[in-house]
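re: that chain from earlier
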Amino acid sequence: MNHSSHEGSGGPKSVTCPRCGKAFECRLAGDCWCASVDVSEAIRRSLAERYDTCICRTCLEELIEKEDRSQGFPARL
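^ sequence. v structure.
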């Protein structure tokens, strides 16, 4: 996702999701939870255009599921 808005802070950071307002932890690097999530380029572009920071896991999973449904894919387990 987009770690640029809080890079260089030296470790995990508490972030508020700009989409839902929920607090979550961002690890600011490749070991962040978001690095293991398969996110389409379309979602990445959309997030970069809308938000200056990361969104929470719940919101990211909702966007991925919404995209999957719109393309006729079954829900991910």
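The chain has two helices and two strands.
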